[in-house]
Specification:
- The chain is of the alpha+beta class and about 140 residues long.
- It has a single domain (about 5-110), classed as HIT-like (HIT family, subunit A), CATH 3.30.428.10.
- The protein has three helices and five strands, in the order αβββαββα.
- It has helices at about 5-15, 55-80, 130-135, and strands at about 20-25, 25-30, 40-45, 80-85, 100-105.
- The two termini are about 30 Å apart.
- The model has no long low-confidence stretch (mean pLDDT about 90).
- InterPro entries: Histidine_triad_CS, Histidine_triad_HIT, HIT-like, HIT-like_sf.
- GO terms for molecular function: catalytic activity.
- This is HIT domain-containing protein.
Length: about 140
């Protein structure tokens, strides 16, 4: 993908407007134009990586360090008693901009967001085969 084709790359280059709240050598953070809650922000690596499969562990760690910093910044500035971090890789996971990013969503009440899944516990023993299959791919 060329930098011009990627919205986040254009923001990083200064060719697309954004309300920045943090910048460092490796990442930027800006307010999402689709505010799910007040202060909903995006953390983006300066280097283009399509998704979690393409970003290096070090690159992902840099994004997470910024997410921690921005979470604290939002909590102090907006008095948000909670924060959700959200990442999606791939269309089936609802990724809509194909440049790795993490959403930082301040939470103000228990009901300002709807959980994307419901909890349904299963006996831990029933997960043994699945765990073995996943370990086999390490």
């Amino acid at each position: 993908m060329t930098a011009n084709a990627c919205t986040f790359c254009r923001i990083i280059a200064g060719d697309e407007p954004a309300q920045m709240i943090h910048e460092d050598d490796h990442t930027i953070a800006f307010l999402n134009i689709a505010q799910v809650t007040e202060g909903h922000s995006l953390i983006v690596p300066r280097e283009h990586h399509r998704d979690l499969a393409e970003i290096s562990p070090d690159g992902a760690a840099q994004v997470m360090r910024t997410a921690v910093h921005v979470s604290r910044q939002l909590t102090r500035a907006l008095h948000a008693p909670g924060i959700n971090l959200w990442h999606a890789s791939g269309e089936t996971a609802w990724q809509s901009v194909f440049h790795f990013h993490i959403h930082v969503v301040p939470r103000y009440t228990l009901t300002d967001l709807t959980p994307p899944w419901t909890e349904a516990e299963v006996p831990v023993e029933s997960l043994a085969g699945l765990a073995a299959e996943i370990r086999g791919q390490a």
